[in-house]
Specification:
MarR family transcriptional regulator, globular, Arc Repressor Mutant, subunit A, transcription regulation, DNA-binding transcription factor activity, transcription, WH-like_DNA-bd_sf, three-stranded antiparallel β-sheet
Length: 153
């Protein structure tokens, strides 16, 4: 490939459009664009540490803390001291958070339906497989952005 912008540009556009769409759709529920991803992770694995959430979503601990505090304030999650590490917190969905699962997934499905509306069923399947294959590479050990000199971990 000669120009990486031919891949990275559309991916970035899809991502930003996804965030904007979800923020608009979930605004009536008090869920911001930076918060629904946390719910999505908790829908797969409820009761994980704030640190694991931050690592999973590749965000800073500070960003994770702010998102979790917002979700906690809206009544979607609660934090509990980790029994194994009293300095850490585990994050759990409340009943209200669990009830939002269907709404969040419905909004997400609507976005994906729009995104893929001009695809044939075969193209949708091929796209799904290729996107998953590309994303898997980013989960491999060692794929981390290089640290900036003087940055804090």
């Amino acid at each position: 490939m000669e120009d990486p912008r031919e891949i990275c540009g559309p991916i970035a556009h899809i991502y930003r459009s996804h965030l904007a769409y979800m923020a608009k759709e979930l605004e009536p529920y008090g869920i911001g664009s930076g918060q629904f991803d946390f719910l999505m992770v908790l829908y797969r694995r409820d009761g994980i540490s704030q640190e694991t959430l931050a690592r999973t979503l590749k965000v800073s601990k500070a960003t994770s803390t702010r998102a979790i505090q917002s979700l906690e304030k809206e009544g979607y999650v609660y934090r509990q001291v980790d029994e194994e590490d009293r300095r850490a917190y585990k994050v759990y969905l409340t009943e209200k958070g669990k009830e939002m699962r269907g709404i969040v997934l419905e909004k997400l499905l609507s976005f994906v339906d729009t995104l893929l509306s001009d695809f044939t069923p075969e193209e949708k399947e091929t796209f799904r497989r290729l996107v998953q294959k590309a994303a898997l590479k980013l989960f491999e050990p060692g794929f981390e952005p290089p640290e900036k000199p003087g940055s804090l971990k």
